[in-house]
Design a protein that fits this description.
The chain is mostly helical. The protein has one domain. It is 71% helix and 2% strand. It has helices at 2-6, 9-34, 49-76, 82-101, 104-107, 111-136, 146-175, 193-222; strands at residues 78-79, 234-235. The protein has a two-stranded antiparallel sheet. Helix 7 (146-175) runs antiparallel to helix 8.
């Protein structure tokens, strides 16, 4: 029991997720070469090159995203709490490895909705962290009201959610991918409102997750509680 407590869970989870993404990238790179470009008439449904291309780029993006917190800490001299890092890494694992590589987006009901709601909340907490860092800076004297900070955190999360949807739309068009899920897994294209459903649902649940965290943050600041303290960034010299 004592050994379990001494185990560095942050490091263990990081290594596990990074290894999963690297191994997946190598395997998917091979499948990109041997997979058919299209499904011929009469053939049973199988993944094609565009499917593996999406997974390959998502895995590469995940690997880059894994090292960003360390770069951010060194570049801006901040401390990212372990709770935030663990949640961030688990989110990447669920979104990329389980969602794309293991097809949870298609096989597990509401998987995409759950992740977007969670990401909206995380981005809202990130918005609070940025304001907190500015408040800790001697170069930028600030004393913002709890309501303004909550609105900023909400808008920050929504903006990043919109940018993500623009990214998905762009690469769907450029590389012939299906990140916005306008096609079913068997290649059937959705029409009209059904084709927009995934994008609009993502934005709505992003907003819902961000709203919940923004309200919690507002009440926390208003009542001088520390409910978001464990996920907020800190200046390195304040350690």
């Amino acid at each position: 029991m004592k050994k379990l407590k001494e185990l560095n869970w942050e490091k263990f989870i990081f290594i596990f997720v990074m290894a999963s993404l690297i191994i997946s990238t190598v395997f998917i790179g091979y499948k990109m070469i041997v997979a058919p470009a299209t499904i011929e008439a009469g053939m049973e449904y199988a993944r094609v090159k565009s499917d593996y291309t999406l997974m390959f780029f998502q895995c590469l993006l995940g690997i880059v995203a894994m090292v960003l917190p360390s770069i951010f800490e060194k570049r801006f001299k901040v401390i990212i709490p372990s709770y935030m890092l663990i949640l961030y890494v688990i989110f990447l694992y669920c979104a990329i490895f389980l969602g794309e590589v293991r097809s949870y987006y298609y096989t597990v009901n509401h998987w995409d909705t759950i992740l977007h709601t969670f990401s909206g909340g995380m981005l809202g907490a990130l918005g609070f962290s940025f304001v907190s860092l500015l408040n800790q800076s001697e170069k930028v004297p600030m004393n913002l009201s709890p309501l303004f900070v909550a609105i900023f955190a909400f808008c920050f999360a929504i903006t990043l959610g919109v940018i993500w949807e623009i990214y998905e739309f762009t690469f769907d068009g450029v590389l012939g991918l299906n990140m916005q899920k306008f096609m079913l897994e068997d290649g059937t294209q959705l029409i009209g409102r059904a084709a927009l459903m995934d994008t609009m649902k993502d934005l709505i649940v992003d907003a819902a997750g961000a709203l919940v965290v923004s309200v919690i943050g507002y009440v926390s600041m208003k009542t001088q509680k520390d409910w978001l303290q464990k996920v907020q960034f800190k200046r390195a010299h304040l350690k």
